[in-house]
């Protein structure tokens, strides 16, 4: 369908066309690109070809160092941009295909590019929207009869995270230090976290925000969801366990959150929509929607220790296991009049499925450290060691093509000496 050759197993098919921000050694300026196959199409070289009714007046958004301005143009601009890109990259369109000079300037090989955060993230909110995960954690800490708190089935529970420590894939994560209380009969101690964990998550970027005091109704929520990324919301379980009462996560979470660099537009994911989870009791009216907005996205987590020749897969899950949808998350987030802005990041919370292999955290996989996670070759873990490299991948599978996200990777560095 495109004149650009794309391998059938590539995450970046013609059906995908995700947005990202990149630079190259010969041009360190951060600029917006679209991934197709093993190439990046530099939109700053293509901006004059966006001639639709919206983008013809705003071609400068593709000259920006982040996606925020483009996100801020809203739903119709995103749809128009996608139609233009699909036309320009199609095998039957000569504008780009036959212009050798333009193609030389506009295409960059991904291997020669450095990826950056796709947006300036003003605010970051982490939800807790996997019923299987919330149930597992509840059983560990409160017992089976009190696994879910009374509000969990009534609203998308969430907390405000730290936007400044969201980093792009490939950025190392330093083991955090803080207060812990491993022995409940003794005072707390200070030191490096001994229960550093991963959280398999996905997140979406807000685009076309809302005014302060004016909620986003659920019927319009999809018009404010720009696209999705993979996320590893690293977690220091021992620090969090001591600090979280009564106000929730703090130092156990705010030291680092990794996202994949490519933002997959929602239009690319719509063909993979699945029926939403059956929600009982029925949510209040402001949270109800019947259109399918859960997606069949295959997810996996691999771990490679310093002495391991190959990475071991420790989790295989799927985004379709989510209980609360992204539309419900955004509608709830703004129902009180909170203003969301282009570039805000809203995360799913840990994605766990019904089977042990689909548990999206080491806390669950090791069941709070009570059993080892076998990595093969004599390697095992309960929580992360220094030097461990964690990689999250995700993709939708079409007929002979994929819509994927690329890797979301980070390596654990030792704690700084205090």
Written description of the protein model:
The protein has 418 residues and is of the alpha+beta class. It has helices at 68-72, 75-89, 94-97, 100-106, 131-142, 237-243, 266-269, 326-334, 362-365; strands at 19-24, 27-36, 39-42, 107-109, 114-116, 124-127, 158-160, 166-168, 173-174, 177-180, 189-192, 196-197, 200-206, 225-232, 235-236, 257-259, 264-265, 273-274, 294-295, 298-304, 312-318, 345-347, 373-376, 379-381, 389-397, 402-404, 408-413. The strands form 7 sheets. Strands 6, 7, 8, 13, 14, 16, 17 and 22 form an 8-stranded mixed sheet that branches. It is globular. The mean pLDDT is 97.
The total count of helices amounts to 9
Task: Report how far the terminal alpha carbons are from each other.
Answer: 57 Å
Strand content: 25-35%
* Overall pLDDT confidence: 97
Supply Rg: 22 Å
As residue ranges, the low-confidence spans are none
The largest sheet is:
8 strands, mixed
Name the shape in a single word.
globular
Q: What's the number of extended β-strand segments? A: 27
Helical amount: 10-25%
| Helix/strand structural class | alpha+beta
């Amino acid at each position: 369908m495109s004149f650009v050759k794309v391998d059938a197993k590539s995450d970046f098919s013609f059906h995908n066309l995700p947005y990202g921000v990149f630079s190259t050694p010969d041009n360190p300026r951060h600029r917006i690109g679209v991934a197709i196959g093993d190439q990046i199409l530099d939109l700053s070289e293509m901006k004059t070809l966006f001639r639709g009714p919206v983008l013809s007046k705003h071609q400068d958004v593709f000259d920006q160092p982040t996606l925020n301005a483009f996100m801020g143009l809203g739903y119709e601009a995103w749809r128009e941009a996608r139609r233009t890109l699909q036309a320009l990259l199609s095998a039957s369109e000569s504008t780009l295909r036959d212009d050798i000079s333009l193609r030389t300037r506009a295409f960059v090989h991904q291997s020669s590019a450095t990826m950056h955060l796709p947006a300036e993230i003003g605010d970051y909110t982490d939800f807790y929207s996997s019923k299987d995960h919330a149930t597992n954690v509840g059983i560990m800490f409160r017992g089976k009869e009190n696994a879910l708190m009374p509000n969990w089935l009534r609203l998308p529970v969430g907390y405000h995270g730290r936007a400044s420590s969201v980093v792009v894939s490939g950025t190392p994560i330093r083991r955090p230090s803080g207060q812990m209380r491993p022995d409940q009969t003794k005072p707390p101690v200070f030191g490096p976290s001994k229960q550093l964990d991963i959280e398999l998550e996905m997140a979406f970027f807000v685009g076309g925000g809302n005014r302060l005091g004016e909620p986003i109704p659920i019927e319009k929520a999809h018009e404010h969801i720009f696209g999705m990324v993979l996320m590893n919301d690293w977690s220091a379980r021992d620090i969090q366990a001591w600090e979280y009462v009564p106000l929730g996560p703090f130092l156990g979470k705010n030291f680092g959150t990794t996202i994949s660099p490519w933002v997959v537009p929602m239009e690319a994911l719509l063909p993979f929509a699945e029926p939403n989870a059956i929600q009982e009791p029925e949510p209040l009216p402001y949270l109800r929607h019947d259109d399918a907005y859960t997606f069949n996205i295959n997810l996996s987590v691999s771990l490679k220790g310093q002495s391991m020749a190959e990475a071991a897969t420790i989790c295989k899950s799927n985004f379709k296991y989510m209980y609360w949808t992204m539309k419900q998350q955004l509608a709830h987030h703004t129902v009180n009049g909170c203003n969301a802005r282009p570039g805000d990041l809203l995360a799913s919370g840990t994605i766990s499925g019904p089977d042990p292999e689909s548990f999206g955290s080491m806390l669950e996989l090791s069941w709070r450290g009570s059993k080892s996670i076998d990595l093969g070759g004599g390697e095992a873990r309960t929580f992360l060691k220094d030097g461990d490299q964690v990689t999250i991948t995700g993709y939708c599978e079409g007929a002979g093509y994929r819509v994927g996200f690329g890797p979301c990777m980070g390596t654990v560095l030792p704690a700084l000496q205090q």
